[in-house]
Design goal:
The complex is a heterodimer of chains A (40) and B (251). With 40 residues, chain A is an alpha+beta fold. Chain A contains 1 helix and 3 strands, in the order βββα. Chain B has a 7-stranded parallel β-sheet. Classes of the chains: A alpha+beta (40), B alpha/beta (251).
């Protein structure tokens, strides 16, 4: 894998992973209404 | 992507795999240059469900392989889900496989039963919660720690630490950059989240300076040697998470 200026770490399976990335985490309470919408 | 990010961390339970896939496609960047991590939610851990969940993630992302796929929570039929991940890796659907939220206790409960060693364990980690016992276990097994909430998720006292303020002044960086640089030098993979373009840009500007050995030791001493915001070992956590929502409600 090539990259921009971000270094990589080598995983134990030999793969090079970019050591820095972007998280898209959303807290659970924000997505709970999705279930409620389905129920109605 | 425009700012140079090439590693995206998503999950079935974030309900945004489709959006992540669309962003990758719209970026026009060669797939080989992008690292995509997603995660299986625990309602899918039964073996047949796990196989389907992997294909569902691939379909939502619009990809023919994922770079890394994790078991998001360490409860339920973990061994069956892990077997499905191993098989998907062998089939080329996933390049690397790992786990998440495994404490030392949970790691020792499950991993000895696995046929292969996870490549990563994604856990809560920040200067106040450095997971020292877990890191010893992972280092011995050559397993890389990935940090969720690497900036302490809004812990104001962390950002008021005099040590971090002084280092920020010395290196002409902000405190978040000092924390992320510390974690990088510790060999920890980080993926901070922000919705602000200026913050997304500044977060990744940590590769033009290096903390000294003494400074690393000083930040290591900020560890409070306690529990984090989320305790995977706590009673009732598995049931709480399993009942929180249905990740396939809108499929």
């Amino acid at each position: 894998m090539t990259n921009t200026n971000i270094p990589t770490f080598k995983l134990n399976d030999g793969t090079d992973i970019p050591s820095f990335g972007f998280g898209t985490f959303q807290i659970l309470l924000m997505v709970q209404p999705i279930k409620r919408l389905k129920m109605f | 992507m425009r700012l140079g990010y090439r590693h995206i961390d998503t999950a079935t339970a974030y309900f945004n795999e489709q959006e992540v896939g669309r962003a990758i496609k719209d970026s026009g960047i060669d797939r080989q240059q992008i690292w995509v991590t997603s995660k299986m939610w625990l309602q899918d851990y039964a073996y047949e469900d796990a196989k389907k969940a992997i294909d569902t993630s691939l379909n939502k992302l619009g990809l023919d392989y994922m770079d890394l796929y994790l078991l998001h929570q360490p409860y339920g039929e973990v061994d069956e889900a892990w077997k499905a991940l191993e098989e998907a890796k062998a089939a080329g659907k996933i390049r690397s496989i790992g786990v998440s939220n495994m404490t030392p206790k949970i790691w020792n409960q499950w991993v000895p039963k696995f046929a292969s060693m996870p490549s990563v364990n994604q856990v809560e980690y920040n200067p106040y919660f450095q997971q020292k016992e877990l890191r010893q276990i992972l280092m011995a097994a050559h397993v890389t720690l990935e940090a969720w909430a690497p900036l302490g998720q809004g812990n104001k006292s962390l950002f008021e630490e005099t040590l971090l303020k002084n280092l920020a002044t010395k290196y002409q960086k902000d405190i978040g950059q000092i924390i992320l640089r510390f974690e990088h030098q510790e060999g920890v993979i980080v993926f901070p989240k922000s919705v602000h373009e200026s913050r997304i840009q500044s977060n990744k500007d940590i590769f033009d300076f290096e903390l000294t050995s003494d400074e690393m030791d000083a930040i290591r001493n900020l560890d409070q040697n306690g529990k984090g915001m989320h305790d995977p070992d706590a009673a009732g956590v598995a049931e709480m998470l399993l009942n929180a929502f249905d990740v396939h409600a809108n499929d």
